[in-house]
Design goal:
Length: 179
Amino acid sequence: MENPDPSATSGFESVVHHLDAHGVAYEVVEHDVTSTAVGDAAASNVDPAAAGKTLVLHDHRGYSLAVVPADQHLDIAHVRELTGASSHLRLASEEEMARDLPLYEVGAVPPIGPRLPAIDVVDVRLVGVDRALFAAGDHRHSLLVSVSDLLRLAEPRVADVCEVRDERDPEDREGFFPG
């Protein structure tokens, strides 16, 4: 993991420095404090399907990242299969993120930047988006970044890693009993 700019005082500043150092064009979007990628999208007037949600994964190998559209949910079993990860691969806890990724606010981890684990996978749905909105290290800033630049810098796998969700009303589904 790369060291951040020593003059940077926040995760946001470190991410911007990282993008500048790699010649990546971006647009900063400042918005009200939000706590989710869908909230970032709404505060930025961006379709949630065009906003990326960075998920921190953890297992015995350490940390990795997965990036999916903000309006989707990760199919972690599929990521395990795709990456050859153990059955212990899971979402990192808030405590782990706060302890091991202290440069970034919990829930605002960007997909690329200094002191970040590698991206294992980007969901294929984001490849069709020209510029996507991503968290920028804190809950007040997001960045519009070219998805092709993200793929060029991170060189992740691209695959369909989102859960298939039945959007019908649960009462309309035969044999469905809430647990």
